[in-house]
């Protein structure tokens, strides 16, 4: 459990605006979940304001903290979009992350592949811990290019839907991850609809069977015979 993942820092009077690159934040979060983490809390995700003298000595009243949402609620891009893409990708792995078995293997210098598996389903992380050099690796028959100091997320262990260092394409990454998530949910819905249809057919034929098997009864007491 990670209780305080700093997205920035305080701003001092006369000092520069503090900033933490979103690629570094995303890398830390992805690596945390790759290593078995279960919960991360951002400090701050939404900036605020300390009015009057409540901010502290030499600290400005603005508590923006370089957060994905500033103190007015505005989106701070690309930080907001890049982190949204990250968590969209992680959510796609929620089943295997919480219920699966995990194994990690080295696939290159400073490069690790982690596989989470549960009930025939698997999801993978590829991490490059080299701070200055990218890496091209082959994993399960496919080739991947990992920028320096980055983590790639593969919800099906085949297709990369997100990489922490590819910040400029964060909107495309979020779109890719969201489309994959929607596709997965649609498949679940199709299976559920098929099961419901099958149940309805079974109920229909069960009712028909019961109807055909009902004994016929005739009330002869009300019949009058006349010549």
From TrEMBL:
Give start and end of each Beta-galactosidase beta-sandwich domain: 113-167
Q: Which residues form a coiled coil?
A: 168-204
InterPro entries in the record = GH, GHD, Gly_Hdrlase_35_cat, Glycoside_Hdrlase_35
- Is Membrane one of the keywords? no
Where would I find the Glycoside hydrolase 35 catalytic domain in this sequence?
Answer: 1-89
The cross-references to Pfam families, in alphabetical order and at most eight, read: GHD, Glyco_hydro_35
The keyword Transcription is annotated on this UniProt entry: no
- Give this protein's Gene Ontology molecular function annotations: beta-galactosidase activity
Give the EC number. Answer: 3.2.1.23
| The reaction(s) this protein catalyses | Hydrolysis of terminal non-reducing beta-D-galactose residues in beta-D-galactosides
Name its GO BP terms in alphabetical order.
Answer: carbohydrate metabolic process
> Which keywords does this Swiss-Prot/TrEMBL entry list?
Coiled coil, Glycosidase, Hydrolase, Signal
This protein is called beta-galactosidase
Name the species this protein comes from. Answer: Kingdonia uniflora
């Amino acid at each position: 459990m990670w209780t305080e993942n700093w997205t920035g820092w305080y701003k001092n009077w006369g000092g520069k605006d503090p900033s933490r690159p979103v690629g570094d934040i995303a890398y830390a979060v992805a690596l945390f979940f790759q290593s078995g983490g279960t919960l991360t809390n951002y400090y701050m995700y939404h900036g605020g304001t300390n009015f009057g003298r409540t901010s502290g000595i030499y600290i400005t009243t603005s508590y923006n903290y370089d957060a994905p949402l500033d103190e007015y609620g505005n989106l701070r891009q690309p930080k907001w979009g890049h982190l949204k893409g990250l968590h969209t990708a992680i959510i796609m792995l929620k089943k295997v992350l919480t219920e699966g078995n995990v194994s990690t293997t080295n696939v290159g210098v400073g490069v690790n592949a982690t596989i989470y598996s549960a009930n025939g389903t698997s999801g993978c992380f590829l991490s490059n811990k080299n701070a200055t050099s990218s890496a091209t690796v082959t994993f399960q028959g496919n080739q991947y290019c990992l920028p320096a100091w980055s983590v790639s997320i593969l919800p099906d262990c085949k297709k990369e839907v997100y990489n922490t260092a590819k910040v400029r394409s964060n909107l495309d990454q979020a779109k890719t991850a969201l489309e994959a998530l929607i596709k997965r949910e649609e498949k679940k819905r199709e299976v559920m609809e098929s099961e419901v249809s099958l149940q309805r057919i079974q109920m229909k034929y069960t009712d028909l069977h019961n109807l055909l098997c009902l004994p016929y009864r005739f009330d002869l007491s009300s019949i009058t015979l006349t010549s």
